[in-house]
């Protein structure tokens, strides 16, 4: 009774563990990959650096304030600050000061730098979105590979069982004299080949599963269960985007280059800055007991100053002009890159639409071929049982049917991948994206 209770507990525990392991759909795997992929995390850190640069650009409009303090003992020969003569006494002095400076005008370079920093933040968000899209696409492809090899494993196992059944039938027919030992040997070779094919397809499925785990950054030691199909992904319920992440990134690179050209031209203008400060000091000869106390000296030695500075760039050894030239070339290069990216994405969109339609038609054709091959195989098996066909005919028609079923499975999966890819190039997000900010809308509408 005790052992029966223990066995029942272990069975229930195993059932609970099996129920806890829920299979993940393709969309769930893509969402997990986007969250845990290391390249996505790197893009997130780069975005944070862009945001830090933006705060730094904002800080350039604020005054720079500094404070200082000092204390000094002087032993031996020194200069008396009151008489400006050399003395040979021990003295103590300290001082305090506060200063501030504010650039007033520098050719609008700070404004252009702030705008460029804002564009860099948007470009960082686009880079993050692009990385998420790439990871999602790679995960979908890896997921489809796993489904394909799961299907081929099931087909190989089915063929293995069928081969074992044919082998038993052939041996029975040999016993009654309707089949020859050569037929039996042929069926034994076919059964052995099906066993090898099962092992081969299982190894390919395990390899595809490891690649899926690597793309998702899934723990290698943990089991990952996948569904048997790729769920439908209707475009009307998916999130729409005005621009692809790659196109937005190229656009922001062009905007950054344009503002870089403006900053380079700003170096031709004069720069104006204001500064001011306050300082005071204390001095005491340690050998003389009667001197002005610390508070009086701090008040008497107090001083304030205000200054205005203006500088004109006259000759910078061609550095300024060459900087403008390089910035102009960078801007033109970014413009060409943006137009090239738009052309490439349009071509990819058209190719994805055509591929999706081609695989859809291929799926329909392969369905008809599988039906025809199934009828041919069933007829050959009947003829083989009646002695009207050979074992080679059975092997050939069986291989044709298995190949047709594998191609049908591949066409169905690729049709779904290409359909999603076509939707992606038409503005449907692969995974839910962050809500577009006001700045993103402003820059994309310009």
Q: Quick gist of this model?
A:
This protein has 446 residues and is an alpha+beta fold. The protein contains ten helices and six strands; from the N terminus they run αααββββαααβαβααα.
Structure write-up:
It contains ten helices and six strands; from the N terminus they run αααββββαααβαβααα. With 446 residues, it is of the alpha+beta class. It folds into two domains: 23-62 and 106-135 and 207-269 and 318-445, Outer membrane efflux proteins (OEP) (Up-down Bundle), CATH 1.20.1600; 66-105 and 272-312. Strands 1-4-5-6 form a four-stranded antiparallel β-sheet, covered by helices on one side. A hairpin with a 6-residue loop joins β2 and β3 (86-88). α4 (109-175) runs antiparallel to α5 (181-216). The chain is elongated, with a radius of gyration of 39 Å.
Instruction: Write down the CATH topology of the largest domain.
Output: Outer membrane efflux proteins (OEP)
Order of helices and strands: HHHEEEEHHHEHEHHH
Shape: elongated
Question: How would a textbook summarize the main sheet?
Answer: 4 strands, antiparallel
How much helix is in the residues? 55-70%
Output the structural class: alpha+beta
Beta-strand segment tally: 6
Corresponding CATH superfamily of the largest domain: Outer membrane efflux proteins (OEP)
List the defining traits of the structure above.
Outer membrane efflux proteins (OEP), alpha+beta, two-stranded antiparallel ribbon, disordered N terminus, 2 domains, 446 residues
Secondary-structure blueprint:
Elements: H1 2-20, H2 26-36, H3 38-59, E1 64-74, E2 77-79, E3 86-88, E4 91-105, H4 109-175, H5 181-216, H6 245-266, E5 271-285, H7 294-300, E6 303-311, H8 319-385, H9 391-425, H10 438-445
Antiparallel strand pairs: 1-4, 2-3, 4-5, 5-6
